[in-house]
Write a structure and sequence with these properties.
With 342 residues, this protein is an all-alpha fold. The protein has 3 domains: 135 residues; 110 residues, no CATH class; 56 residues, no CATH class. Helices cover 83% and strands 0% of the residues. It contains 14 helices and no strands. Helix 2 crosses helix 3, helix 2 packs across helix 5 and helix 7 runs antiparallel to helix 13. It starts with a helix and ends in a 6-residue tail after the last helix. Keywords: Membrane, Transmembrane, Transmembrane helix. InterPro entries: AI-2E-like (IPR002549).
Length: 342
């Protein structure tokens, strides 16, 4: 009994030390891990399409080729969309800055001229400069991330080429270990289901946002819809990051009322996606507590940079499933689960 009690602090110290070492190591090779992780998740998204084509009697090599061609077209279209929009936006930034200055000058007319309010005026200008910088930073980051897309596409293509035979190979290797086979299947099914459902709901949210902005005649509506789709993988914070650029442009074009209307519209789409559509599709598949979800954003963002936040939830699910695979670490996985009763 005493031995078991004494082993608990030792186990915590051991696992904590291992986690710190692993974190430092992953951070050092983050530039290598990011394209690898994105390639694996892209493979998980597109491999069901390969299997579906095979069930329709399409030969394996042709089905993989069709999916790879679709992936390349999608990647090229995304890069062209972001690059073209960024170039157009860069030419209009001086105009937006002028409009923002005009807005703050109008606000200043309603503020008392006493010295105690000069700090408020400075704060307003700083906020405006921050929002403009944030908008440009988001787009510049997306453009810089596009430099790794070619590597991701190539790696995903090689993974897809082996997709048809992988399940059979895996079953042959572990056919004498039914428990391990069951865990591997459950692991893959849960992860793929989450990624596919998250991608589908993000796509609906991105299309809905783009349509809303097109109706409102907001500049670069398609780009903001794509940004909404992309940042939808970041829980809690993604919505606010995606809403900043179109709300700013609505402020420039229609004033405060227009900005509020766009913000409310995007918020309603987000509520529909996150509170109605996604829970109804995902069910209980995401058994992570909200605190773990939120903390995972900061952890994977620290380890892998901004790209880590996009795949923080799938990576955290992988960690949880790995912890569940051992009797010695299963208690850690339980701590990561949501406390709500089924």
């Amino acid at each position: 009994m005493d031995t078991d009690d004494n082993s608990v602090p030792a186990s915590i110290l051991l696992y904590g030390t291992a986690a710190v070492i692993l974190t430092i190591g992953m951070r050092e090779i983050g530039s290598i891990l990011v394209p690898i992780f994105f390639s694996i998740f892209a493979f998980l998204i597109f491999s069901p399409i390969v299997h579906w084509l095979q069930r329709k009697k399409v030969p394996g090599s042709i089905s993989v080729g069709l999916v790879i061609i679709f992936l390349i077209i999608f990647a090229i279209a995304a890069v062209l969309l972001v690059t073209g929009s960024l170039l157009q936006l860069s030419t209009q930034i001086p105009e937006y800055q002028t409009q923002l200055t005009s807005i703050f000058e109008n606000i200043e007319r309603y503020l008392p001229s006493s010295g105690q309010y000069s700090s408020i005026e400075g704060i307003l200008r700083d906020v405006g400069a921050f929002l403009l910088g944030l908008t440009v930073g988001i787009l510049t980051g997306a453009l810089n991330a596009g430099t790794t897309i070619a590597l991701i596409v190539i790696t995903t293509a090689f993974l897809l080429l082996d997709a048809a035979g992988a399940p059979k190979k895996l079953e042959r290797e572990i056919e004498d270990q039914p428990v391990l086979l069951l865990r591997v299947r459950e692991f893959g099914r849960s992860l793929v289901d989450f990624i596919l459902i998250r991608t589908e709901t993000n796509l609906i949210g991105g299309i809905g946002t783009a349509i809303l902005l097109l109706i409102g005649r907001i500049d670069f509506a398609i780009l903001w819809g794509f940004l909404t789709f992309l940042l939808g993988y970041i829980p809690y914070l993604g919505f606010f990051l995606a809403a900043v650029p179109p709300v700013l442009l609505a402020l420039f074009k229609y004033g405060a009322i227009g900005a509020i209307a766009v913000l409310v519209g995007i918020w309603l789409i987000n509520v529909l996606i996150e509170n109605v559509l996604f829970p109804s599709l995902a069910g209980k598949s995401l058994k992570l507590s909200p605190s773990i979800v939120f903390l995972s954003l900061f952890y994977w963002g620290y380890v892998l940079g901004g790209s880590g936040a996009l795949i923080a939830i799938p990576l955290t699910m992988v960690v949880k499933m790995i912890l569940e695979s051992s009797d010695n670490t299963r208690w850690m996985a339980k701590l990561m689960e949501s406390g709500s009763k089924e």
